[in-house]
Design brief:
- The chain has 158 residues and is of the alpha+beta class.
- The chain has two domains: 66 residues, Alpha-Beta Plaits; 70 residues, Alpha-Beta Plaits (2-Layer Sandwich).
- 26% of the residues lie in helices and 39% in strands.
- The strands form two sheets. Strands 2-3-1-4-7-6 form a six-stranded antiparallel β-sheet.
- Strand 6 and strand 7 form a beta hairpin.
- Helix 3 runs antiparallel to helix 4.
- The chain starts with a strand and ends in a 5-residue tail after the last strand.
């Protein structure tokens, strides 16, 4: 899992083709998707944001979680988007956790978690689940109901 920064721009930017080259010149641009320029480095995203603000084309800055592989859940589309080869999740909206327990109990808990799943990936031999932050207490309740252990991850340190 890596991090990136999405700089959302006003759709009017398409009327100024030269501007697109300015947003990638000497900056670590990962890719452009519709009206979002995705940068590897926060300083590069801030540079692009400053330039866009001057031109009154800046819309928003989004810290993103970048994932190479995984499973998209039913709640994905309000919380992330697919790139050409990567998946991007809105970091500020989500929480992530590991879930462990006895096989049958664990499988039952996973069925419940899947109803609220944004994205699922793996780290080492463990599955990592991403859900909306507002469901943190619910996820803890599901884990407790099935005698499973839930470990939340600090996305700022991972």
């Amino acid at each position: 899992m890596d991090f990136a920064y999405g700089v959302e721009v006003n759709p009017l930017i398409t009327d100024i083709p030269e501007f697109a080259s300015l947003l990638s010149y000497n900056l670590k641009l990962i890719e452009t998707l519709d009206c979002t320029y995705i940068y590897e480095d926060e300083n590069d995203a801030n540079s692009a944001m400053s330039l866009l603000k001057e031109a009154e084309l800046f819309e928003a800055l989004h810290p993103l979680i970048v994932l190479e592989s995984g499973f998209i859940g039913d709640c994905f589309f309000d919380n992330g988007f697919k790139g050409q080869t990567r998946t991007y999740l809105y970091k500020e909206l989500l929480t992530a956790f590991f879930l462990t327990g006895e096989n049958q109990q664990l499988e039952m808990a996973k069925i419940q978690v899947d109803e609220h799943l944004v994205y699922k990936t793996s780290k080492g031999h463990s599955e990592v689940f991403f859900v909306e932050q507002q469901f943190s207490t619910l996820m803890a309740g599901i884990a407790a109901a099935y005698n499973c252990r839930l470990s939340f991850l600090d996305l700022d340190k991972w």
